[in-house]
Amino acid sequence: MMQLIRGFRDILPGESAHWQAIEEAARRLFADFGFQEIRIPLLEKTALFARSIGEDTDIVEKEMYTFEDRKGDLITLRPEATASVVRAYIQHKLYAGDPFHKLFTIGPMFRRERPQKGRYRQFYQINAEVFGTDSPLIDAQLVYILMTLLGRLGVSGVQAHVNSLGCPVCRPDFKAALMVFALGRSAALCADCLRRKEKNPLRLLDCKVPSCREAMAQAPEMGTYLCPDCREHFQRFLSALSRLNVPHVPDSRLVRGLDYYTRSTFEIQTHVPGAQNAIAGGGRYDGLVKALGGPDIPATGFAIGLDRLAEIVKKDSQSAPGRPDVFIAALGGKSREKAFEWACRLGEKGIFAEMDFGDRGLKAQMKRAGKLDARYVIIIGESELSTETAVLRDMAAARQEDVPFSLLLGTVIERIGNPH
Ligand code: HAM
């Protein structure tokens, strides 16, 4: 038997209803806040991700699905969406006229991580990116949008972890202090941290290896190194969150796994113990548009992990297929052809008509109609064919009537009361 690839998965019908509910809620919310959809390719040049996410990150070092195409160009299945959205923003000069853009995109990402519950190699994200302002109010609004979405989906008890990663003015000093601190503790660090302590010492702050955690417990904190501008920016971010009543906790260890961040960063974590508790993360990336060859335009955004969110959202009511408006019970080949034609015509009018494609008797078909909880049943057999009159039965009222074929569809559409 063929099996799917490790770390990949199928979203089966019952589950996909939860996914649809989340995606619909997200689309509605984005519309409420003036976001427009952008759709970007699954494949991009490898260099795009290496330059934006950073050469020394886990994602670029070991998690990307990268291969040569037939001409030998290196291409990569997107491990995240931000880099591609920025590329598109620059390439299509979306900044011309008005640099301010609020964009969203929903789709699969690919990272070759060790699979476990809540962590997949193809996973899905809902992304929001805002270009053209460095205001901390927009950062707060993004967190607010995230929390509102979770609230609308019935997810409670979550809080935002927030931090500031500073800017090119103040971060180098912080990095240098971290490096010096880490050098003194080299003996306790894992191989990854040892390798990264010079190029990317921030990553040492969120290493999950216990000996690294212990060694870095007293490490310097970015908060004490923020320059006056970044300090004020962070304060305004925090006070906007407070004014919006968004539950949040400053978390100086929140460094995120991607290198493009500046200033505000945030993550929404659930209380589920274990490493896979982040359902969303994001932050400001003021230098990325310029770094990828565009003008100097600040930007900020987030991504929600749809797989993880779907696991939390329980929306049982939508996990079964919809109730048919009509069930057409047909007896004999000719009747079934007629039934089939009606089912198609009703479907086209937005009325869900189910039927039996086998050769079962009337009793079995009526039983199925009952099980599916159809509102009406149309019965058509030999005698109905000869008189060109079908039986239309209202299941709840247990009432039935004869309706001429010529009037049948019109009558059903009228009764269902929702013709399109
Ligand atoms: P990220 O933190 O790498 O950020 O991913 C965002 C969310 O995607 C995570 O919080 C998690 O819920 C989900 N996620 C990540 N990896 C996996 C996985 N292997 N399996 C299941 N879910 C996963 C970014 O990707 C940034 N681009 C977010 C951003 C947008 N920052 C600014 N704009």
- Overall average residue pLDDT: 92
Share in β-strands: 15-25%
The CATH homologous superfamily of the largest domain corresponds to Bira Bifunctional Protein, Domain 2
Strand order of the largest sheet: 1-5-6-11-10-9-7-8
CATH class category label of the largest domain: Alpha Beta
CATH architecture of the largest domain: 2-Layer Sandwich
SS summary, helix count: 15
Unreliable sequence segments: 315-319
CATH fold annotation of the largest domain: BirA Bifunctional Protein, domain 2
Overall domain count: 2
**Molecules bound to protein:** histidyl-adenosine monophosphate
Rg over CA atoms, rounded to whole Å, is: 28 Å
| Structure class | alpha+beta
The largest sheet, given as strand count, sense and whether it forms a barrel, is:
8 strands, mixed
How many strands in all? Answer: 16
